[in-house]
Amino acid sequence: MRTLWFLTLSLLFSSCSIPKPLIERIKEEGQLIVITRNNPATYIQEKERIHGLEYELVEQFAAELGVKVKYVIPESFDEILPAVVRGEAHFAAAGLTVTTDRELAIRFTPEYQRVTAQLVYKSGKRRPRKIIDTVDGVLEVMAGSSHEEQLRQLVAEYPDLNWDAQRAVESTELLNLVYEGLIDYTIANSNEVALSRRYHPELQVAFELGKEMPVAWAFPHAEDNSLYKAAKTFINRIKEDGSLEQLLERYYGYVEKLGFVDNRTFARHLVQRLPPLIPLFKEAAEQNDMDWHLLAAIGYQESHWNPKAVSPTGVKGIMMLTSATAKQMGIEDRTDTAQSISGGARYLRRVEKKLPERIQEPDRTWMALAGYNVGYGHLEDARILTQRNGGDPDKWSEVKQHLPLLAQKKYFETLKHGFARGKEPVHYVDNIRSYYDLLVWHNRKQKQQPLQAVVTTLPAVL
Q1: Catalytic residues
Q2: Are 264 and 201 in contact (CB under 8 A)?
Q3: 454/40: higher pLDDT
Q4: β-pairing, 44-46 with 49-51?
Q5: pLDDT band at residue 446 using 50, 70 and 90 as cut-offs
Q6: If residue 416 lies in a helix (H) or strand (E), which one and from where to where?
Q7: Can you tell me the mean pLDDT for 350-378?
Q8: Distance (Å, rounded) from C-alpha 397 to C-alpha 253?
Q9: Which residues contact 185 (CB under 8 A, 6 or more apart)?
Q10: Number of helices and strands (H, E) in the chain?
Q11: What is the rounded CA–CA span in Å between residue 462 and residue 265?
């Protein structure tokens, strides 16, 4: 009888077994479902390449779990949080700011970025000084965004305030509508504005609405918090070990380096000077296994694509080679465009090959560019200084912070190659990264329409 009783209890407990934690089920199924948005700041696919800060973070987290990611992109921004609440995705990684209203419906991980809401208008139009100044124009924001939430709160102070909340439209599209003059104003997060202004420098920030806001992943409120805890641990770890800082530098560390005049001049030279140089950049890039856009960006930073350029220090040509470098590369005439481009490409490759093999892309390219500019010896000094100070000498985001120290006596006296104007290679690399992005973007536009049509989409500079 006792045996029968124990058998009955055993069957009862086995039929009411506790379900496995969510994170274990995800690992068994091998798939993490994440809802995001199609935006350069989050997740965007261009040809065969997917990129974006949220995408990179999610992929790193999934790799730690040993699973693949299924990305869900809804038609409208205001569908993201309801989908998380309904359990249609494990969490949202969509550049979401943490607000009091949102925290009632969902729970956020620790922040991994901070942004401000910015009111954007087009240069040449009247600049609004406060939010009420927008009432005579057309103000559009994304439906369900924190910006719409902010506007609702401001109505108590400004009853006449009005706006249109648009569904099925992204912040980048609204920014483009401002650029095209189809609407007067929009509100977007500072990181999204910075990315858009690379291509449309006529977009101007009128003012900021409120203080900085944290950005975080959004999870549903649920008893099973195993996945949430893992995500929380992941975010805290990448903040502590510096890998988050490296990602932020990769996406935002250089995007605001070019001013309006820089972009305007570039747009003019893109049409007037680049076309006959493209075959030479492509040939040299192919011979040295490089992206021709990168080589062209270097040429623009060096000389603005002027083959007759000469600096006060005696460097010459499209790639502004020194006489010593030209001699090393077998260049007879630095002002000969083909020779200059070929010599510059081979010299950059020579610098890159000196770097330790363990340095991965894109850090490898950025460091090679810094060495191209300031000299490999000074780059090595900066890497040594980085290591002395407890940083990672193989990460550009950390080395770039130490390069300017090479101009300070207390540092350069302790290093092999001595004094260097270390700020210059930092600006050099940042500018080339910006020019590279612009070249890729314009080249993509050019494939979609004839060059003269592309010119009409640029700021009015000609």
Answers
A1: 302
A2: yes
A3: 40
A4: antiparallel
A5: confident
A6: none
A7: 94
A8: 8
A9: 119, 120, 121, 128, 134, 137, 138, 139, 140, 178, 206
A10: 21, 11
A11: 9
Residue 393 confidence (pLDDT) above 80: yes
Are 84 and 219 within 8 A, CB to CB?
yes
Across 36-145, the runs of DSSP E, i.e. the strands, are: 44-46, 49-51, 68-72, 91-97, 106-108, 113-122, 139-142
Residue 408, both tokens: 């300070």
460 by DSSP, 3-state: which? coil
Question: Measured between alpha carbons, how far is 402 from 404 in angstroms, rounded to an integer?
Answer: 6
Amino acid at 80: I
Quote the CA–CA distance of 99 and 114 in Å, as a whole number: 12
What gap in Å lies between CA 272 and CA 280, rounded to an integer? 16
> How close are the terminal C-alpha atoms of the chain, in Å?
98
The pLDDT of 406-414, averaged and rounded, is 89
Separation in Å, CA 112 to CA 195, 204, 234, 397, 437: 18, 26, 11, 16, 24
Q: Which two tokens stand for residue 47?
A: 């040809």
Long-range contacts of 242-246 (CB under 8 A, 24+ apart): 242/391, 242/392, 242/395, 242/397, 242/398, 243/60, 244/112, 245/397, 246/395, 246/396, 246/397, 246/398
The set of residues, in sequence order, having a beta carbon less than 8 Å from that of 48 and lying 6+ positions away, is none
Single-letter amino acid, residue 185: Y
Is-contact 429 416, C-beta < 8 A? no
Q: Dihedrals φ, ψ of 429, to 5°?
A: -65, -45
Q: Write out pLDDT tens, residues 234-274.
A: 999 999 988 898 889 888 887 777 776 677 788 888 888 99
- The H or E element containing residue 459 is none
What phi, psi does 226 have (nearest 5°)? -65, -40
Which tokens in the block code for residue 163?
């706006």
Residue type, 189: N
pLDDT of 120 strictly over 70: yes
The first and second tokens of residue 64, run together, are 């730690």
Separation of alpha carbons 376 and 353, rounded Å:
11
Task: Enter the tokens of residue 48.
Answer: 């065969």
| Confidence label for 17 from pLDDT (cuts 50, 70 and 90) | low
Residue 459 CB-density burial (10 A; 0-12 exposed, 13-18 middle, 19+ buried): middle
Length of the chain, in residues: 462
Closest CA to 184 of 124, 149, 140: 140
Q: Residue ranges of the alpha helices (H) in 94-159?
A: 100-105, 146-154
Beta bridge partners, 100, equal: none
What are 188-237's pLDDT values in tens digits? 999 999 888 888 888 999 999 989 999 999 999 988 999 999 999 999 99
Mean model confidence pLDDT for the chain: 88
Q: Which residue has the tokens 């010896």?
A: 377
